[in-house]
Amino acid sequence: MSTRRWIHCGLCSALITASKETKFYHLSCLDILCRPCMGKTNRGTTCPVCNNPISHFSELCNSMSRREKMLYHAFPAGLFQMSCQALLFQQKHRQRLVHTILKARDTMKRLDALETQIQQQIVQTQRRKTPGSEPNGESISLNAHRLVEGN
Questions:
Q1: Residue 7 CA neighbour count, 13 Å, CB half
Q2: pLDDT single digits (tens) 8-28
Q3: Listed residue (27, 33, 29) closest to 12, CA to CA
Q4: Which region, left, alpha or beta, applies to residue 42 given φ > 0 means left and ψ of -120 to 50 means alpha?
Q5: Are 16 and 24 in contact, with CB atoms under 8 Å apart?
Q6: How large is the average pLDDT for residues 63-76?
Q7: How confident is the model at residue 64 (pLDDT cuts 50, 70, 90)?
Q8: What pLDDT sits at residue 61?
Q9: Domain 1-72: which topology?
Q10: Residues whose CB is less than 8 angstroms from the CB of residue 52 and which lie 6 or more positions away in sequence, other chains included
Q11: Domain segments of the chain: what residues?
Q12: Bridge partners of residue 25, in order along the sequence
C-alpha cells in the first residue's frame, strides 16, 4: 500500500511516513492508530479515540482486506466516477430489457387477438361447411341447370 499523506494516528496525530518506521493499524471502529498508541487500547478491546469496542484490527499494509483497502484508495473521486459509470451502464441495460419485455408483451397481446380472430373464422367456415346446413350437391346442380335454361 503506497503512502498517503493524510493517514495519521487518531490519538497522537503522528503521520505515516514512506519509510514506515512506525506501523499503523486500521481498527474495526474505523479509527487509525500508530503502534505506540495501540498500547492504549486496553489490550486491544477499546479504542482510545472513540471509546468503542474493537472487534478486530489490521496493520496498514498490502495484505489488508479489499474492503479495508478501499477506504485508503488514492483516488476516491475516481472510485466514485467508476461507480457512477457502472450504475449508468447497468441502468441503461435494465431499461433496454424492460423496453424489450414491454414490446414482447404488446406483441403477445396482438398475437392473442389475431389468434382469436382466426379461431372465429375457422368456426364460421366450419359452420358453413357442416352437412345439412347447405344444399346437397344434387340440388345445387338442379338449381344451376334451371338458371342456364331460364326456367
A1: 25
A2: 899 998 888 777 778 899 999
A3: 33
A4: left
A5: yes
A6: 79
A7: confident
A8: 84
A9: Herpes Virus-1 (3.30.40)
A10: 29, 46
A11: 1-72, 75-126
A12: 33, 59
Cα 63 to chain centroid, rounded: 30
C-alpha cell at 47: 479504542
Pull the grid cell for residue 39: 498500547
Element (H, E) at 27: strand 24-27
Q: Mapping DSSP to helix (H, G, I), strand (E, B) and coil, where does residue 45 land?
A: coil
Helix (H, G, I), strand (E, B) or coil at 109: helix
* Residues ≥6 apart with Cβ < 8 Å to 19: none
8 bridge partner residues: 15
User: What's the CA gap between 136 and 107, in Å, rounded?
Assistant: 43
> What cell was used for 70?
478501499
